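not sure who needs this but someone in the group chat was asking about ABC transporter ATP-binding protein from Rhodococcus globerulus so here u go. i didnt clean anything up, its just raw.
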Amino acid sequence: MTTAPAIDIRGLTVIRGKQEVLHSIDLQVSAGSVTGLLGPSGCGKTTLMRAIVGTQIVKSGDVRVLGDQAGTPALRRRVGYVTQSPSVYGDLTVSRNVQYFGSLYGKSGADVRAAIDAVGLTRYADQISADLSGGQIGRVSLACALVADPDLLVLDEPTVGLDPVLRVELWERFADLAKGGTTLLISSHVMDEADHCAELILMRDGFLLAQITPDELRAKTRCERLEDAFLELIRTSPVGGEIS
């Protein structure tokens, strides 16, 4: 029995102003996986994620998420999205922020505490969010998404500004979520995080360069370091197209 992909995108094209920023993207993301969306800043990662969660106007193409059209009301309780800019209430404590979002999904106090603990903010639970550092506020946003226990979690560069120890802990948490059946799509411009992913979606200038595993990328480019492998992929791929 073949499991349907959690995300299925066909021919996605997005135009902003007069510029085409995504060029006929085709990709599928397996259910229950950790998939990395990688590429330099400005390559279209955030636009692609916005199309997946249904907040981006598209010119053409089909985007299906968990079997439904992206952005449909049926997905509101099934998809979590953490943006690069934290979405929290600065005048509320960490606990109150997470409790508020948890209440929208009927979650208990235990669920709220578990989400806060998962992002390493237990000792700051009663602190006003506006008094936290930028990295800590980003973790509050992540906890607000985790508390809903979504089937799909879309994270836009969630580890930016975090110390190395916490980054490792978060990736371990992401792996545990995937083992429990959650699908995670995580963007980053840091190639050393790619080894935490089962599969990689590599982008540049609005084009999909490749959808590939870390080991396959190393084998294809004969580069051990993933950053070197990505640069080699760019050099050997045709302009405006996916590598063969």
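also The mean pLDDT is 91. if thats useful
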